[in-house]
Specification:
GO terms for molecular function: DNA binding; DNA-binding transcription factor activity. By secondary structure, this protein is mainly α. It is 60% helix and 8% strand. The chain has a 3-stranded antiparallel β-sheet. Helix 1 packs across helix 3 and helix 2 packs across helix 3.
């Protein structure tokens, strides 16, 4: 598991960890039931505090990406396809909101924005 942290990133360290682990799970790089390092192990390998690693794991667990089994460790949670699709839709919605705001700012009509999106969608 390769996590790259940046001190120049405006995101807090724990969010950088969460974002990268989520991306690895969503892409299939990390598969259901794959073991993850312990909180201490993650903290040590990333040179961050145990509290930062714990915060990241708590967020991932709350969002259903990982599960901790007492005495056995932390693992990638078994994901169902509906959950993965919802997460992909959430990401797309966020990007489309940014695009809509750009369209409004530069007075580009919704129809023009839709045509541009369709053009990109139909490209191979």
């Amino acid at each position: 598991m390769n996590i790259i942290l940046s001190s120049s990133n405006s995101q807090p360290i724990y969010e950088q960890i969460v974002t990268q682990i989520k991306a690895m799970i969503m892409s299939g790089e990390l598969k259901p039931k794959d073991p993850l390092p312990s909180i201490r192990g993650l903290a040590k390998s990333l040179h961050v505090s145990v509290i930062t690693a714990q915060h990241a794991y708590e967020d991932l667990q709350r969002d259903g990406f990982i599960e901790t089994v007492a005495g056995k460790g932390t693992f990638v949670a078994a994901q169902n396809q509906d959950f993965i699709r919802e997460e992909h839709l959430r990401i797309a919605e966020k990007k489309l909101m940014e695009v809509a705001n750009i369209g409004k700012e530069y007075h580009i009509s919704c129809d023009q924005m839709i045509q541009i999106l369709q053009m990109f969608y139909e490209e191979e």
